[in-house]
Amino acid sequence: MTARRRTGILISGRGSNMAALIDACKAADFPAEIATVVSNRPDAPGLERARSDGIATAVVDHRQFADRPAFEEQLDRSLREHGVEIVCNAGFMRLLTEFFVQKWHNRQINIHPSLLPAYPGLHTHERILQDGVRITGCTVHFVRTEMDAGPIIAQAAVPVVSADTPDTLAARVLAAEHAIYPLALRLVAEGRARVVGEKVVLDCDDRATGPLYSPSITQICAPPTSGQS
Ligand code: GRF
After folding, report:
1. CA of 14 to the centre of ligand 1 (A)
2. Which of 95, 158, 164, 196 has its CA at 20 to 30 Å from residue 107's CA atom?
3. Angle, CA of 168, 170 and 172, to the nearest 5°
4. What is the pTM of this model?
């Protein structure tokens, strides 16, 4: 296997998606390794989980900086200090400006708990229940300056049931998030997700029906084995 791509994770809180990425990277054949976890909040519970796995952590507290460029400069520096090549936003609750987004163009990805471009922003599950939506899901996409927007790498569909509360729906979607985020990181780390005209072309698109996958996504997008067309 070629060298694993050094990956930095940005968090603000619980860090369950971060944990899913850390766990995926423990597999011997995973094409990425977690080089550092950076939080903008000193009290983010995810920091402790990362430390318990022996991962270097840093806090870049946005409240300590005069303006966004100063904050983003330090964020960028803390990633580069660890030789980061790919950035994963995992519940990172700061909007990033052009300054940072351009530096990591097509090398920074984010996960959002809806089928984008539907329902960007906060309180996703509440809004979905209010609207009577029957199918929701989650999306991993390359980061652009607009909130929760950018070329889509992977999505998973999740049913909404009539007894759902925002919490039960969030829990069902979160399980799907934990499945697709490592898959999306694998695709990016292996250079198999190319951005063409602001859409992602996957090298496995010809073996699937498009960028919307069922739980069998891991089989659909498994690395091609020799002899397979
Ligand atoms: C997830 O639902 C993620 O999609 C959203 O924020 C939540 C973060 O959860 N951006 P966690 O910190 O990964 O547990």
Report:
1. 8
2. 158
3. 70
4. 0.91
